[in-house]
Specification:
Strand order of the largest sheet: 4-3-5
Oligomer: single chain
Number of helices: 4
Radius of gyration: 17 Å
Strand content: 15-25%
Distance between the termini: 21 Å
Order of helices and strands: EEEEHEHHH
Length: about 120
């Protein structure tokens, strides 16, 4: 099993309990929960901000965008523009799938009695 390294502190992320996956302009990166909070504090512009993919906010975004995408692609709402919006709404859904397949699924769910960083 390959190890995942936090992009802030460059230490190994040991399990999904301490993992936050974040995206920024088609990039998906793993972070420790605490390191991601520090990264958000250091970020000063909206263009440089990282958006969390896993977690409650990411799940709500994926569900809403998947619903919007299915609605726009299966109905004739807004014609061609609706189809384009449906395809664009798949972006966060694809990021979540990539995050799960390449980062989260390769980590154990929880390790008991792990030493703290």
């Amino acid at each position: 099993m390959s190890t995942k390294v936090c992009r802030y502190c460059y230490k190994e992320v040991r399990d999904r309990d301490e993992l936050v996956t974040a995206s920024n302009w088609f990039r998906v990166r793993p972070y420790h929960f605490r390191c991601f909070q520090l990264l958000e504090e250091d970020t000063s512009t909206v263009a440089g901000s990282w958006t969390p993919i896993n977690g409650r906010v990411g799940l709500i975004t994926v569900v809403l965008m998947l619903g919007l995408s299915v609605w726009m692609l299966t109905t004739d709402t807004l014609n061609f523009i609706g189809d384009l919006l449906g395809v664009l709404a798949l972006y966060p859904v694809l990021l979540r799938i990539i995050s799960y397949l390449f980062i989260e699924s390769r980590l154990p769910k929880y390790i008991e009695n792990k030493p703290h960083l």
